[in-house]
Each structure stands twice: as structure tokens, then as C-alpha cells.
Input
Amino acid sequence: MERSFAPVQLGSIELFCKAAEVGGFAQAAREFGLTPAAVSRAIARLEQRLSTRLFVRTTRKVALTDDGRAYYEQCREALAKIEDAERAIGGRRGTPSGTLRVSLPTTYAHYRVLPRLPTFIHQYPGLDLEMNVSNRNIDFVDEGYDVAIRLGEPKDSGLVGRRLEDAALGVFASPGYLRNAPPLAGIGDLTAHQHIQFVLPSTGRPMPWLFQVEGREVEYRFESPIRCSDDVLACVTLAVAGAGLFQIYDFIADPYVKRGELVEVAQSMRGRSRPFFALYPQNRHLSPKVRAFVDFLIGNI
Output
């Protein structure tokens, strides 16, 4: 049967129904853990698709138009039937199914997640996986994602975050660079070295290096003439080529260390890490496919 709606249309319909029930975009946004602007965009897409106004908007509230009320009654009934169907199927089958859409940052995808996915696919053959591998922020509602993996504590209160791991950090350089480099015994010696700096795409600011110095947690911030953004592996390639020191996760550095292309330095100051989380919206009960995927990652990373 030919599909008559876009992949993310159902999410927009849910937002429309919630806004109709609570009488405003802001309240609907709070209940779904979104911004009012995201709810407004979703409903505007529906109105454009239907070629009609669903709400009369004022500065204080929104109210359904006649078309909006008729559409709401039909959509509310349809959503209830979908929920009943999912509960019935979920009761008969505990196996996750359908399409799981996941957003992954590039380096974490290649080093931690993608190599493990064949095992997950084998365990759940009825599940289709759609992976977006990039370093951009995604909108769960607008783009229809189920799960995103991100670095750092979740800042959006509308998202549930489950910690996958605390990725240990170390400072590494090539044997060629170290051959002619000055000694590096403590944090004060770093200023005599060449640094490779990674600029966070989300903020446009350099990522500080993290150290444990005599029991104290230290953020080392610096300026460097060598900067890379978007792709962490560009910094690793520069370090292997002898451009200077770079702080990176052990899981990335390990293959290079084993091949003799990188050497760890400043080991007396290691001990810090950065957390990676699996994020998903808290507005719905955790679906079997999301639960299966997140539990698999926690158990295998």
C-alpha cells in the first residue's frame, strides 16, 4: 500500500493532539521535553500539509479552529488505536521490531558502536537499523530519531540519558616528535611543547585537556597554532605525523600505540575521563527496540 504521510508525520500529530489537549504550545513542549519553537514548527508542517489552519493563535493561548477540532477528534481516535495495537503486539511478542533510527558521532561510531552491531543485528533479525553518523546535533521530533549517542551529561531535561561509559583519556605523541622534544614530567612542562587542539563543533570553542595532578582535577586550557574541528581523527593523524601532543581517548589511541605509531606521555597526570551517554526522549514509555539497543550497548561497551 502506498504510504500517504512522511516518516515523522506521526510525531507531529502527537504534538498537535497534546497542544490541543493542554491549550498551548509551551505546555505541550514542556510535557514532551521540547522547545515551544519545535512544537510550533511541527504543527506548521501539519497545517501546510492540510492547507488549513488548525489553531487560532493569540499572545496568551491557542484555540482549535473548526477544522482543527474535527482533525483532533479523528487523530485522537487513531492514536488510541495505534497504542492499543502496539500493546497487543507487545503482549504477544517480546522481540523488538520495526525501524530503529540512531544518531552517532563519527569517532564513537567507528571505534565503539559499529564494530559491535553485527552481534546486535544477529540477536534481533526483525529490527531494521538506520544509522546517521555525523557530528551534528539532531532534533528528535523533526527528524524522527529514536536514540542519539553524545559526549557529556545531557543538558535537555526532556531527554533521558543512560551512561554508556567513562572513556579514559591520555596524552600521546609520535616517537619522531618525542625524539627531539623537551622533557615532560609535570603540567608546567606542557608549555614547552607543541599542542594539537580540537575545536568542538557544538560550541566552536577548543576542548580543554583534563588531568589529575596530585589529587586535583585540572582543566588545561591553551592556545595552539594547530587546530582541527569536526573530525577528531584529523588531530590523531597530525599526532602520528609528528605535529605535537594530543589528548585523546584510550580506545582511539590503543591501535596506534600497539603499532608503535604513538607513545603515551604525562602518564603521572592521567586519571580523567569523559562520559558518553545514550539519549532518548522521556515523553513516551521506553519502547522495546530502544531498550534492547541501549541495554546491548551498556552490556558490550
